[in-house]
What we know:
Layout: H1 6-29, H2 36-62
Amino acid sequence: xxxxxxxxxxxxxxxxxxxxxxxxxxxxxxxxxxxxxxxxxxxxxxxxxxxxxxxxxxxxxxxxxxxxxxxxxxxxx
Length: 77
């Protein structure tokens, strides 16, 4: 897998975890007043967002640091 900047991974994790928690809360509290199908769907999409946040967290914690080979540096002018 390609190396991803840690800051970008942190932002992706925060976005997915935030929208996942918000989706689950809205699906379980606000949406049942409208219809059962929509609350189930919103809650399910919140769980999917939490799963994506966990995946990006796993990538963040397990990826190797990007160390460049010093032999490939361009000489200074």
